Amino acid sequence: MITHTFQKDGTSCGVFVMEMAKMTVMEFPNIPENFHVESSKRCVKKLRQDMAEEILKGSDSRYMFCSFCGNGDLLHPVIAALWIQCETCERWFHTDCIEMTPAQTPNEDTPWYCVLSNN
């Protein structure tokens, strides 16, 4: 049995489990004797952000999927889906997903900014 800290709320169990799993992998092949996860709201929030960032960095390239629907062309219901890329964050979107009409689509020389880019 491994001793460990406990969450202080009813919503952070996933954060604790993920952090304990990470600690176990980092110690492998040794088995940790205890796990300490700082349980303050500030620390749990930071852990969530760090985990999300790490998962996203390890996931498939954002260039392969629409940042709105998560699908590539082959999975998108529109056979000849048009794509647009944000000038700032470089994410790609199906124009249909962001409800951009052909008349609203800028030409290749005009930068376009998504709602995620803060422009």
From TrEMBL:
The keyword Protein biosynthesis does not apply. This is PHD-type domain-containing protein. Residues 63-119 form the PHD-type domain. It comes from Ameca splendens. PROSITE patterns: ZF_PHD_2. Keywords: Metal-binding, Zinc, Zinc-finger. The lineage of its organism: Eukaryota, Metazoa, Chordata, Craniata, Vertebrata. InterPro entries: Znf_FYVE_PHD (IPR011011), Znf_PHD (IPR001965), Znf_PHD-finger (IPR019787), Znf_RING/FYVE/PHD (IPR013083). Pfam families: PHD.
